[in-house]
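R.M. (postdoc): so does anyone remember the format we settled on? I'll just put the C-alpha cells first.
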C-alpha cells in the first residue's frame, strides 16, 4: 500500500479483506436494484431469450458432421453435440451428444465452463477440449475421443494455464503453456512453443521457438491440407505486430513481410493485408488492402502481388474466408455489409456478388469447409430482423436452413444512420433504433472504440425486450479506434491520439441531444472492457452529457493497467505508462487518476467479475472505493464467476443484464 494509491489491497483478487468489501458493495447495490417486481420480470424475460429453444443452433461443418455447442435452461453449462446436414435441415434435428458439460461438472465437482475444442483434421475423431473454472481465460486441456464420447485414457492433458495447443498429427501436438518460472511473457501468455509427442512427459517436449519476455505470446500451428502441408510459428511482438516463420526440416524461415501485416496461407496462395501503406514490387498498397500471390513464387523472390481489394473513403475489408476454390470477401460500406466472391483462374481473379445483406444490417460468413468443397453458411440480421442462417454453394443456389424467432415486436421501430462531427471535423457514423414517438425519451448509447473492433448492425432479443419494447431508444456509435473504416480508422486514435475516441463519442452524445432524439438527463451509456474505459472517461471528462452510466469489466487505472493480468499486451493500443511522454497522454484521460471530489457525476453502476483473468477486477473495485471516499454515490456489482464476460451461464447473464437495464431505466425515466 502506498500514499498515492491506498486501495492496492483491492487488487488481491481473492483476498479475504477484498472479497468482504465486494460482498458489502454487492449487497448495497442488489438490495436496491433487485427488490422490485419489475426486476424479476426483466430478468425472466431476458432469460427466456437466452434459453429459447427456437434459437438458431449455429454449427461448424467438419467432414460429414455439423458441430454445435448448446446452452439452455436444462443444460446451463452446455452440450457439445453434432448432427448431419440432412438432419439439420429438419425442424427438430436429431443430435448426437459428445460431451455434457453439466454432467461432467457434477461428476467431478468442478465449475466447468466450455472454452472450445481443437479437432484433428482430417479424421475429426480426436479433440483437445478446453475447460475453464468459472469462465476464466485460463483452461485445462484434455484429449477427447469424439466417436467414443469420452476422454482418452492417458491422453494429452495440460493443467490450468493460458494454454495454446494444436494438432500436428495423431501423436504430436504443438503446446504453449506455463512450463515454470520464466516461461510466460509479461502479458501472462506462453513465451515458449514446443512439440510434444504422445506417450512422453510434458517435460520432454522439444522447444520449437522461444520468444522474449516482453513479447505478447508465441504459438505454432500445422496446416494439414493435403498436398500443402506446412507448419508456421507466430511471434506476437505486440498486439498489432507479428513475425511469421515457416518451420521446415532445415529450420525456421521468416516470411519477408512487414511485421504489421496480417498474413494467411491457403493451399497455393499467400494473402497479405497491410495495416499501414506498403510499397512492394514497385507498387504502393494502402492500409487495409488485400494482396495475393502464389506462396511458392513469393518464397522464390517474386513480389508481383495482385490487389484483390483496395479500400476507399467509405468501404473497408471486414474479413475474408476461403472455400475449396474461392475466396469470400466481407466488406463494410459505411458500416453496412456487402459480400463478394473472388475466384482465381488462368486469366487472373474473377469477381462477383455473393448476396446482399438487409438494409442497415449485417451478413456474416459463419463457416466454410475449405478442405472439401465450396459450401458456405451465411447469417444475416439487422437491428429489427432476426437472424436467418442460409447455406450456399458458390455458383449455385442458396437455401434457408434456420430462421430465428422474433423476440420483440419490431413493427413501428425505425432504424436510421446519422453522422456526428467530432472536434477535428471527422464525420462519425451512428445508428439510431427507436419506436415511433420515442423522441426525447430514455436513450441508451453504446460504443467500443478500440482494437480495430467493428460494431455492425445485429439483432438482439435482449435489447429488444429490455429496452426497445419499453419505449427506449438504442444507439450504436461507430467511433474511431474501431475497424469500421479499416486499420486507418483505428490507427487515428491510438496512444497519443487516444483522445479522439472520447471526442468522437461525446460528439455523438451532443448530436443526439441537438437532433432532439433525447436530452442529456435521459441519455444513458453502457460499455465493457475497452468500452468500460470509454465509460470511465465519459464519467470523468464529460459528466454533464449523461444521465446514467453502466461501466462493465473496465480498465480504469491506466497507471497500472500494464502490470495487471494481460494488460502488458495492450500497450500498443494505449501506450506504456512507464514512459514519461506516453504517460503524459494517458494521464489526461485515465479515469482513476482524474475522478474528483469537486465534480458532480451522473449515477453510475460498475460491473465486473472476480474470475476475470483478462481485465483485473481491481480496476472497478479501486474506482468505486475512491469515488466513495470522495463522497459520490456509486453502485457496484461483482459476479464471483464469469470471466471477462462477467457471466458463466445464461442464468448469470440474465441476472447481470437485468441489473444493468434496471439501473438505467430507473435513472432515465
Amino acid at each position: 500500500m502506498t500514499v498515492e494509491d491506498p486501495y492496492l489491497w483491492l487488487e488481491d483478487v481473492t483476498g479475504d479483506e477484498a472479497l468482504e468489501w465486494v460482498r458489502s458493495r454487492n449487497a448495497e447495490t442488489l438490495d436496491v436494484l433487485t427488490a422490485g417486481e419489475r426486476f424479476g420480470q426483466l430478468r425472466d424475460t431476458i432469460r427466456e431469450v437466452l434459453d429459447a429453444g427456437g434459437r438458431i443452433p449455429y454449427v461448424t461443418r467438419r467432414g460429414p458432421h455439423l458441430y454445435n455447442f448448446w446452452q439452455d435452461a436444462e443444460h446451463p453449462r452446455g452440450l457439445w453435440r453434432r448432427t448431419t446436414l440432412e438432419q439439420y435441415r429438419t425442424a427438430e434435428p436429431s443430435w448426437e451428444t459428445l460431451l455434457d458439460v453439466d454432467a461432467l461438472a457434477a461428476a467431478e465437482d468442478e465449475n466447468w465452463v466450455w472454452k472450445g475444442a481443437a479437432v484433428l483434421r482430417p479424421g475429426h475423431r480426436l479433440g483437445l477440449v478446453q475447460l475453464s473454472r468459472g469462465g476464466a481465460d485460463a483452461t485445462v486441456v484434455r484429449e477427447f475421443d469424439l466417436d467414443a464420447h469420452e476422454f482418452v485414457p492417458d491422453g494429452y492433458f495440460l493443467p490450468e494455464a493460458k494454454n495454446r495447443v494444436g494438432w500436428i498429427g495423431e501423436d504430436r501436438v504443438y503446446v504453449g503453456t506455463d512450463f515454470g518460472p520464466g516461461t510466460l511473457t509479461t502479458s501472462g501468455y506462453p513465451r515458449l512453443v514446443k512439440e510434444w509427442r504422445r506417450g512422453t512427459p510434458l517435460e520432454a517436449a522439444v522447444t520449437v521457438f522461444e520468444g522474449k519476455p516482453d513479447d505478447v505470446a508465441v504459438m505454432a500451428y500445422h496446416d494439414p491440407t493435403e498436398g500443402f502441408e506446412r507448419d508456421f510459428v507466430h511471434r506476437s511482438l505486440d498486439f498489432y505486430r507479428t513475425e511469421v516463420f515457416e518451420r521446415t526440416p532445415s529450420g525456421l524461415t521468416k516470411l519477408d513481410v512487414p511485421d504489421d501485416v496480417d498474413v494467411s496461407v491457403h493451399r497455393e496462395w499467400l494473402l497479405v493485408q497491410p495495416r499501414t501503406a506498403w510499397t512492394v514490387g514497385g507498387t504502393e498498397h494502402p492500409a487495409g488492402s488485400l494482396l495475393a500471390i502464389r506462396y511458392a513464387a513469393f518464397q522464390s523472390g517474386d513480389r508481383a502481388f495482385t490487389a484483390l481489394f483496395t479500400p476507399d473513403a467509405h468501404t473497408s475489408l471486414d474479413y475474408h474466408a476461403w472455400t475449396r476454390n474461392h475466396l469470400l470477401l466481407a466488406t463494410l460500406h459505411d458500416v453496412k455489409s456487402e459480400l463478394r466472391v473472388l475466384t482465381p483462374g488462368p486469366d487472373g481473379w474473377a469477381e462477383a456478388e455473393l448476396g446482399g445483406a438487409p438494409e442497415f444490417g449485417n451478413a456474416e460468413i459463419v463457416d466454410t469447409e475449405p478442405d472439401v468443397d465450396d459450401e458456405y453458411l451465411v447469417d444475416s440480421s439487422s437491428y429489427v430482423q432476426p437472424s436467418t442462417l442460409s447455406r450456399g454453394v458458390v455458383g449455385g443456389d442458396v437455401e434457408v436452413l434456420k430462421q430465428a424467432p422474433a423476440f420483440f415486436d419490431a413493427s413501428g421501430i425505425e432504424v436510421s444512420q446519422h453522422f456526428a462531427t467530432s472536434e477535428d471535423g471527422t464525420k462519425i457514423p451512428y445508428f439510431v433504433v427507436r419506436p415511433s414517438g420515442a423522441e426525447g425519451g430514455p436513450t441508451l448509447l453504446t460504443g467500443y472504440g478500440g482494437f480495430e473492433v467493428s460494431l455492425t448492425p445485429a439483432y438482439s432479443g435482449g435489447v429488444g425486450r429490455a429496452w426497445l419494447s419499453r419505449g427506449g431508444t438504442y444507439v450504436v456509435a461507430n467511433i474511431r479506434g474501431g475497424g469500421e473504416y479499416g486499420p486507418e480508422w483505428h490507427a487515428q486514435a491510438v496512444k497519443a491520439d487516444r483522445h479522439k475516441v472520447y471526442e468522437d463519442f461525446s460528439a455523438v452524445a451532443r448530436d443526439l441531444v441537438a437532433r432532439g432524439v433525447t436530452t442529456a438527463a435521459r441519455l444513458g451509456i453502457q460499455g465493457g472492457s475497452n468500452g468500460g474505459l470509454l465509460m470511465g472517461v465519459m464519467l470523468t471528462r464529460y459528466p454533464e452529457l449523461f444521465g446514467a452510466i453502466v461501466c462493465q469489466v473496465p480498465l480504469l487505472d491506466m497507471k497500472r493497467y500494464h502490470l495487471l493480468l494481460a494488460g502488458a499486451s495492450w500497450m500498443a493500443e494505449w501506450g506504456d505508462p512507464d514512459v514519461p511522454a506516453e504517460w503524459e497522454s494517458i494521464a489526461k484521460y485515465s479515469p482513476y487518476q482524474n475522478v474528483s471530489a469537486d465534480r458532480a457525476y451522473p449515477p453510475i453502476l460498475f460491473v465486473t467479475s472476480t474470475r476475470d483473468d483478462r481485465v483485473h477486477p481491481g480496476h472497478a473495485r479501486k474506482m468505486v472505493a475512491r469515488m466513495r471516499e470522495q463522497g459520490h454515490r456509486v453502485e457496484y456489482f461483482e459476479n464471483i464467476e464469469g470471466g471477462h464476460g462477467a457471466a458463466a451461464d445464461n442464468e448469470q447473464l440474465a441476472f447481470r443484464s437485468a441489473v444493468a437495464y434496471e439501473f438505467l431505466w430507473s435513472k432515465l425515466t
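R.M.: ...and that's the designed sequence above, right after the C-alpha cells. Also worth knowing: The mean pLDDT is 95. The chain has 14 helices and 39 strands.
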